[in-house]
Amino acid sequence: QVQLQESGGGSVQSGGSLRLSCAASGYTYSSYCVAWFRQAPGKEREGVAAIDADGTPKYVDSVKGRFTISQDNAKNTLYLQMNSLKPEDTAMYYCAATYEYLYFRLLWPSEYKYWGQGTQVTSPH
């Protein structure tokens, strides 16, 4: 049974940093595709960053240069380093994983089978 558990969320001033973690059980991160998504109240779930099966990262334009996705295969943990946070980054953040090869669909939430419960990130004005 695959379980994903996020941690590291919180409230930080604009311009600050947070690092999210996602620990996995029953799933090996080096297997296929993994990603971070976020959802703000009243908005659709949005793909933030993902790692393809060959290790290539992909980011949504709004976080390029500020966020970094990485994975530690020894610890079976996925990370999202978030720097220069902005108020518009405020959302619930979810990690997700799948056993599929997604190619151009890396940031499509509908393509992921396994999800964590989410961790809240708030960066007030």
Concise account of the structure shown:
This protein has 125 residues and is an all-beta fold. Helices cover 0% and strands 46% of the residues. It is globular and about 40 Å long.
**Could you tell me the number of beta strands?**
11
Put simply, the count of helices is 0
Strand content: over 45%
Structural class: mainly beta
Give Rg in angstroms: 13 Å
What's the N-to-C terminus distance? Answer: 40 Å
Give the uncertain stretches in residue-range form. Answer: none
Q: What overall geometry do the principal axes of the alpha carbons give?
A: globular
Taking the sheet with the most strands, its summary is: 7 strands, mixed
Helix content: under 10%
Tell me the series of helices and strands, N- to C-terminal: EEEEEEEEEEE
Mean pLDDT: 94
Search tags:
7-stranded mixed beta sheet, 46% strand, 4-stranded antiparallel beta sheet, single chain, 0% helix
How would you explain this protein's 3D organization?
The chain has 125 residues and is mainly beta. Helices cover 0% and strands 46% of the residues. The chain is globular. The model has no long low-confidence stretch (mean pLDDT 94).
Protein topology:
Layout: E1 3-7, E2 10-11, E3 18-25, E4 33-39, E5 46-51, E6 57-59, E7 67-72, E8 77-82, E9 91-98, E10 114-115, E11 119-122
Parallel strand pairs: 2-11
Antiparallel strand pairs: 1-3, 3-8, 4-5, 4-9, 5-6, 7-8, 9-10, 9-11
